Amino acid sequence: MKQFLAFVRKEFYHVLRDRRTLLILFGMPIAQILIFGFALTNEVKDSEILVVDYAKDNASQELLTRIGASRYFNIRQAALSHKEILGTFQKGKIKAVVVFPVNFNEDLLHHNKAQVQIITDASDVNTANMITNYLSSIIMDYQNQVNQNLEIPYRITPEVRMLYNPQLKGAHGFVPGVMALVLLLVSVMMTAISIVREKETGTMEILLVSPFKPVLVIFAKAFPYLALSLVNVTAILLLSVFVLDLPVKGSVALLFAESTLFIITCLALGIFISIETDSQQIAMLISLMGMLLPTMMFSGFLFPIENMPLPLQIISNIVPSKWFYIIVKSIMIKGLGISALWKETLILLGMTVFLLLVSLKSFKIRLQ
Amino acid sequence: MQDDRVIVCEKLTKRFGDFIATNEITFDVHKGEIFGFLGANGAGKTTAMRMLCGLSSPSSGKATIAGYDVYTQTEQIKKNIGYMSQKFSLYENLTVRENIEFFGGIYGLSDEQIRTKTAQLLQRLGMQNEANKLVASLPLGWKQKLSFSVAVLHEPKIVFLDEPTGGVDPVTRRQFWDMIYEAADSGITVFVTTHYMDEAEYCHRISIMVDGKMEVLDTPTNLKNSFHARSMDEVFYQLARGAKRGD
C-alpha cells in the first residue's frame, strides 16, 4: 500500500507539472461548455408519437390521418391518463403526445375554434422544437384547407407543453454530452499517453525490474486520472448549475456513482490502448479517432441516433458513451433514479468488466 | 569460492520461435565482482540480461540470482537487484529529492530509511543544493551518477547496468567508474554491459557474446594474452568479425 501511495504521488507530480496536461484537464470542460452553448439543429423523422383521442370524431380522425401520413411521425393510438403519459416519456421511446379534447369537432362547429394539446419530451430541446413545429404546421395545413369552404374560419390552436424543460434550455442536452466527451478525453487519452510515455522514456523497464507488481503499476497510473476526472465532473456540474442555471433534478450521488463507473470504463480503454501501442503519438491518434469520434457521432449528443440508418444505430450500441449519455441525461434532466436506469448501468458495467479483463490479459501476454 | 557466487548460470537459453537469442550460456559471477558483459548489437546481451532480471522466462537451462531461481522466484530476485539502463532511469519532471523518494518508496523502504538515505546520497554526490531542482535541469553526467545511486539505494546484492555511460565525456565516465568500484568494494556485485573497450578493461572479468553464444570469459589481461592483442579493442574485433548476426 505504501508503495502504491508513493507511486500515486509521483503520478500527481507528473500531471500537475505539465502545463499542457493541466490545460486539457481544466480548460477543456469550460471551453466545451461554452462552445456547445450554441445549439445545433438536427432533423427528426419517424418519431414515435402517442395520440390520446378523447373526441374520436371526424375532425380529429382527419387530422390524425394527416399526421400519420407525414414521414416525420409514426402514430400509436392509446387512451391514457396524464400519469401514464409521464411514464411513457420516461421510457424514452415516445417523443410527443397529441391530445384531442372531448368536444374537438363540436367546438369547431359551434365556436369555430378548438384546441389540440401537444406534449413533448424537451430534455432533447432540438427534437422537441422540431416536432412541435412540424405538428403545428400540419394542423395549420388542415385548418387552411377546411377554411376554404367556410364563411367564418375555424381556428385550431395547438397548446404546447414542453415536459422536463419548460424554458427550452439548450444546455440540457449538451451538458451530459460534454461530460461524456471530457471524461473520455481525460481518462482514455491521458491514461494511455502517460503509460506509453513511461515505455518511451525507458522508465517502464525500471518499474518492471522493481518488486512493484506490474499490475499495480497500471492501476497506480490510472488512479490519479480517476481522481482528476471526478474533479472534472464536479466542475462541469458546478458550471451547469451556477453559470447555465441548470439544476440536477435527480440524485447527485447516483450521478457521481454512474460517472465513476464510466470513468473506469474509459480507464480500462486507455490501459488497453497503452498496452497495444508503443508511441505517444499513436496512442493519442487511436484515442482521438477511435474514441472521441464515435462519441461525437454515436452518443446521440450531436446527432439523433433514431435518424441514422439501421446499421449505424446498431453500431451505436457498442459505444460506451452512448449509454453514459442516456444515463446522465435521465438523471440530470428527467430526475430518474436507478430503478429506471438499471439496464443502461448494467450494460456499462458489462463493458467495463470486459475491457478490464481484455487489457489485463493482453498485458500478461506482453510481459512475456 | 562456492559460497560467494551470486549469479549461477547453466546452459541458459532463450528461443523466440526458430530464433535462438541466447544459446546455452554458462557462467558464474562472484560477490563484489565487476562483471563485463560484452557483445555486438544483436548478440543476445539484452535477452540474457532480461532473463537474469526476472523479466523474461528462459526457454531452458538453469540460473539462480542471489540464490533465487529465475523461473519461480522472480519476486525475490527483483527485491535483490538494482537496474540502470542506457535510457534514463529517472523522471525528468520530478526533482532530485522526489525521484529518490519515489524509488525508495516502490522498493518498500520506510520513511525513516528514505530520509536518512536521501541525506547521505545528496551529500556523497555533493548535490545538496540541487535537491529541489528538476532532474531535467541537471547535466548528463550528474543524472547518470544520480541514476546509479538510485539503482543501489535499496542496497541490492547485484546491480545490472545496461550501457550506463552512453554519451558522456571520458572524465565523467571515469568518475562514474569510481562509483562502480566503490559499490563493488562495499560488496555489491556489478553486472555491466558496454560498448566502450576502455571500460571493459576496468572490469574484473569480461565475457564476450557472439551470435547468442558466450565465446570467451576471462580477465582482461588473460584475454589480451590469449588473443595476442595489445588492447581489448583488438580482442573484441577478432571475435566480432566472425559474427553472422548484425543489427
TrEMBL record, chain A:
Bilayer topology annotation: Multi-pass membrane protein
Alphabetic keyword roster: Cell membrane, Membrane, Transmembrane, Transmembrane helix, Transport
Secretion signal span: none
Subcellular location: Cell membrane
Keyword Hydrolase carried by entry: no
Origin superkingdom: Bacteria
Any one GO molecular-function label of the UniProt entry: ABC-type transporter activity
Transmembrane segments: 21-40, 174-196, 226-246, 253-275, 281-303, 346-363
Record domain ABC transmembrane type-2: where: 128-366
Gene3D superfamilies: abc type-2 transporter like domain
The UniProt record lists the keyword Transmembrane helix: yes
GO cellular component: plasma membrane
Main location class: membrane
Family, similarity comment: Belongs to the ABC-2 integral membrane protein family.
Name the UniProt record assigns to this protein: ABC-2 type transport system permease protein
Lineage: Bacteria, Pseudomonadati, Bacteroidota, Cytophagia, Cytophagales
Automatic annotation (TrEMBL), chain B:
Subcellular location(s) of the protein: Membrane
Chief location: membrane
UniProt xrefs under InterPro entries: AAA+_ATPase, ABC_transporter-like_ATP-bd, P-loop_NTPase
GO cellular component term of the entry, any: membrane
Membrane topology: Multi-pass membrane protein
Keyword Transport set for record: yes
Signal peptide (residue range): none
Superkingdom classification of source: Bacteria
GO MF annotations in UniProt: ATP binding; ATP hydrolysis activity
Pfam family, one: ABC_tran
The entry's keywords: ATP-binding, Membrane, Nucleotide-binding, Transmembrane, Transmembrane helix, Transport
Gene3D superfamilies xref list: P-loop containing nucleotide triphosphate hydrolases
SUPFAM superfamilies to which the protein is assigned, alphabetical: P-loop containing nucleoside triphosphate hydrolases
Every ABC transporter domain range: 7-236
Protein's name according to its UniProt entry: ABC-2 type transport system ATP-binding protein
Organism in which the protein naturally occurs: Dyadobacter soli
